[in-house]
Hints:
The protein is α/β, with parallel strands linked by helices. The protein is built from 31 helices and 24 strands. Among the domains are: 3-202, no CATH class; 208-316, CATH 2.40.50.140; 459-587, P-loop containing nucleotide triphosphate hydrolases (Rossmann fold); 619-775, 3-Layer(aba) Sandwich (Rossmann fold), CATH 3.40.50.300. The longest helix is centred in the middle third of the chain and has 31 residues, at 373-403. A hairpin with a 4-residue loop joins strand 5 and strand 6 (259-265).
Amino acid sequence: xxxxxxxxxxxxxxxxxxxxxxSAVIGGLAKILDFWEGEARNDGLPEDLxxxxxxxLRGYGxxxxxxxxxxxxxxWKQIGEKLPEAAPDGRHAxxxxxxxxxxxxxxxxxxxxxxxxxxxxxxxxxxxANEVAAAPVPPPASERTAPRPGPKGPGRAESRPGGITxxxxxxxxxxxxxxxxxxPRHAAMLVRLGLxxxxxxxxxxxxxxxxYSQLKPIHDLFYGQQVTVIGTVISVHPxxxxxGKMSILEAVINDGTGGLRLTWFNQPWLANRLKVGEAIxxxxxxxxxxxxxxxxxxxWEPVEAENLSTNRIVPVYPLTANVTQKWLRKLIHQVVxxxxxxxxxxxxxxxxxxxxxxxxxxxxxxxxQPETQDQLHAARxxxxxxxxxxxxxxxxxxxxxxxxGTGRIFEVADDWLTTCxxxxxFALTEAQRRAVAEVRLDLxxxxxxxxxxxxxxxxxxxxxxxxxxxxxxxxxxxAAIMAPTSILADQHYHTxxxxxxxxxxxxxxxxxxxxxxxxxxxxxxxIRSGLASGExxxxxxxxxxxxxxITFSDLQFVVIDEQHRFGVEQRAALRSKGTSPxxxxxxxxxxxxxxxxxxxxxxxxxxxxxxxxxxxxxETHVLLPTERERAYSLIRGQIAGxxxxxxxYPLVEESEKSELLAATDEHERLQKEIFxxxxxxxxxxxxxxxxxxxxxxxxxxxxxxxLVSTTVVEVGVDIPNATVMxxxxxxxxxxxxxxxxxxxxxxxxxxSFCLLIPDHDDAVENGxxxxxxxxxxxxxxxxxxxxxxxxxxxxxxxxxxxxxSLRMASxxxxxxIEKARLQAQNLFERDPDLKDPDHQLLAEALQRFWSxxxxxxx
Length: 858
């Protein structure tokens, strides 16, 4: 046997005796490659075999003990098949014993180990073909590359309960340096794209596609088209405008049928990158200037000759500095071509058939190298289904895990509830009555409540929470209500006292207390004492509720208001102050149905979709910047009538990089030039919490006529006397945010107004602004916002990473969500823990998708 093989066998034997602890060599088994690869080449070992050894050993340290054993066995099996000298005279190895589990002693007893040394190490025999399938290793350098079999994390060979070993190729965990032409420097550049292993590359999807199979000639273009065209650069002319403060680069391309003028603003470096005579691909919207077709700020890139000659759909990947499209596309093509056909689909066949989906192999091949637009669409649908399906399985598991707990039963008679409702100073809406009934069922179910109460601003969420708290307090237990700001907590406190502290069977006012950061220490001590004794039944507050000294004697109900403002840890900390307390989370942000089915799928949902009678809708108008004086006149008139106004800006301070109006600068200008006779307050996010609360309190108490603010004013505070909301730079806000801002007015019985002024005339036609003027329905606006801006407006801190985990799926695709939800529900009913051997790969893919994220039930 050649010396390089003999040394490799010795190291493998030592690694086995050490329990696969990666300790056969100081620094890890991969260190042997520093000298072994050169010796192997001198011994004349095939280059593809040397590369395979390198790929496995470089990723060896990242594997678990059992996966390491399988990796070495698979590697020696390949060596034995390639080189007969590594086989023990035609004998085959006996079955490999299980690897030492990760939590076992790293150096087991030598005598015991000797009995367990597998023959493939002792006698250098290859593993028999009928044994547990070993993970494939990378192909030769000319074709090496790889994927991961799930939307998160690289593929690994892992043992599942029952001794089942994953069929996922171990080699997919190898560093990208095993690829031909990728050294440490290139690998470091690829890390910036999130590409660390071979497995990362298969799920690195294109950001768009250039369809060279149906190129459109320039003379066939028309205004308003979104197109990709190819032409040769005829001219490039940079110039300075506005005294050098702005640069414009103009170029002209021609494809033989006509010319197209291209313009880029403030990108002077393009003058050195666009070369006359070079063929480039241009993507953008066709516009018109002085009767000629133009494109402003289009995406562009050089065109390789092979793309044109093949007339195919070409993937365009996200890039980073010093990484070219051609080079990255070539690497990913190698990965896809070699590994996609070798993967085993994690989705059971009955689900693929029922949902009419492509198999994983075809989907991955077609999403990177689509043959037709139809094939590309089908591939994207399959990969999007996987992501939504994994989300649905995860949230259903969270919902089940919450429901298996035991919750205290709180039962009240119908007569008691009827008396409580009659004592309220107003009649509940039908939506509020429905929500109270749903909460009441939860409280008497014996399982912990886990409910989301969503409703527009002013729809009456606080009343529902107060009645639920009263049901719990009536049985002697305690409730905690946490709000994001002191002034909102104070507002809830007064509402609770007004609703619950009157009548024969009502709570004593001292049983309802308020705790915020600036509560005097003497009062805090009294609250701590009252909580411990059980005299205080309902505690309302801010983050102060989370402090260590705050201990409840019997906390059984937790309400979290504006839940997206609190992190997972904060919500968990409050719940931990009780024993399986019932949980109600509330939000004033209307949540689209698709999000309610996915991101919030683990929560039972109550919706307040009607407003109390007598509430007037807020008139909304979009004004040109030149019509700003009309807005100021309306504000003066409302203040003269005894009312107040908000003026909101998108920034705190104006920066050199932005021409947006800023709150601090405009506050000073408005006070001096526009409203010198009025009292103006200033509120922004850089102020300390106590400063913000003081300003809001002063505004609520009428000490300011106008509050100049950034968007920190959007949540919570009830100022019935405010009748005007003026939003400057309104085109920079999402619909959800604009709707929240509009909700700060219209809280009283007087007609209120919301005025939206964009920062330039063209933005008056902005679709979001037009939608705001068309409807006051928060749910309609939420659906539009989801389609236009994605889910970020709605997620807050919940399940951090959800949106980033979805590379193909859209949370606005209700059809796909319904399909995946149905399939997930059916499978969850049959095998919730995926213990069936046929669901092994699916369980592994699901684990990868959810690993690294924090699941939470609120």
